[in-house]
Design brief:
Elements: E1 6-10, H1 15-25, E2 31-35, H2 47-63, E3 68-71, H3 74-79, H4 81-92, E4 97-99, H5 102-109, E5 117-122, H6 124-129, H7 131-139, E6 144-149, H8 153-158, H9 165-181, E7 187-190, H10 199-205, E8 211-213, H11 216-229, H12 231-234, E9 243-247, H13 251-262, E10 268-270
Parallel strand pairs: 1-2, 1-3, 2-9, 3-4, 5-6, 5-7, 7-8, 9-10
Helix pairs in contact: 1-11, 5-7
The structure holds D-glutamic acid.
The site of D-glutamic acid has 17 residues, from helix 3.
């Protein structure tokens, strides 16, 4: 039998917030992280482009031997996952799996709201796809979902602007727009991998009784359950607690910026898709 790491993909560095949670839940597993930093952000790109870029990245991770790839990116999960699972895998890689971040979130989020009013903050691409309202309505038809695109939040985080008057202005703007749609939302989902880094500013702008949900722990828990239910797949995953990072842009810049998302610089190699 051959053993290989789990592949984790994001348009850039944001997926590291998800991988952090996954790795603390499943520490002995080996992970191969790929950030398509050269073509990020994905959030404002078309459906076709996001699908094409995501599929190229998934194929590259499969070529490294990964039996399972996690799309740790909401935009890619919302716009490319269904096509990959339903059309590409059966045709080209019937023995490989690709999972996203939407399902682990939407299957549980309905239980977290007391008044059944949920706010979703995400990239323009994720919002436009309507994936969150559609998926949540499958699990929780009674829940009302309000969405707000936050086009400035990813660039702010990517540039290390996590606080200060400029950041506060843009965070407040998007939160105001969301709460204008519904004033008594009681549960707020950060449906973009970058947004947890803005948590201190988001909390400062909200009243204390609104709960803010990050996806990392939800995705980590769902992956643990999935591997328990898929023992044949689980047995093919290598387990030496190793993390290897790849980027399509400058490895030096990845490593330096990774500090923000990971808490320490991460060594990284460059690849071309
Ligand atoms: N990682 C993406 C997400 O979770 C956001 C970054 C981007 O726009 O590329 O939606």
């Amino acid at each position: 039998m051959t053993y290989a790491p789990i592949g984790v993909f994001d348009s850039g560095l944001g997926g590291l917030t998800v991988l952090r949670s996954i790795r603390s839940t499943l520490p002995i597993i080996d992970y191969l992280y790929l950030g398509d930093n050269a073509r990020a952000p994905y959030g404002t790109r078309s459906f076709e482009t996001i699908f094409q870029y995501t599929w190229e990245a998934v194929k590259w991770l499969f070529d490294q031997g990964c039996p399972l790839v996690i799309l740790a990116c909401n935009t890619a999960s919302a716009k490319a996952l269904r096509n990959i699972q339903q059309k590409m895998l059966p045709k080209y890689y019937p023995d490989r799996k690709v999972l996203g971040v939407l399902r682990p979130t939407t299957e549980i989020i309905g239980k977290m709201s007391s008044n059944q009013k949920i706010g979703i903050l995400a990239t323009p691409g994720t919002v436009k796809s309507e994936s969150y309202p559609i998926e949540i309505s499958h699990f929780y038809p009674e829940i009302q979902v309000f969405q707000q695109a936050c086009p400035m939040w990813v660039p702010l985080v990517e540039n290390g602007e996590l606080s200060g008057p400029g950041t506060e202005y843009f965070v407040e703007n998007s939160l105001d727009a969301l709460f204008q749609q519904c004033a008594d939302i009681d549960t707020l989902l950060l449906a973009c991998t970058h947004y947890p880094l803005l948590m201190p500013v988001i909390k400062q702008k909200l009243s204390g009784n609104i709960q803010i949900i990050e996806q990392g722990p939800l995705v980590a828990n769902a992956l643990k359950n999935y591997l328990e239910r898929h023992q044949n797949l689980e047995e093919t995953i290598s387990k030496n607690s190793q993390l290897t990072c790849f980027t399509t842009e400058s490895p030096e810049s990845f490593s330096e910026k990774a500090n923000l998302f990971w808490g320490s610089p991460l060594p990284c190699e460059q690849i071309h898709l």
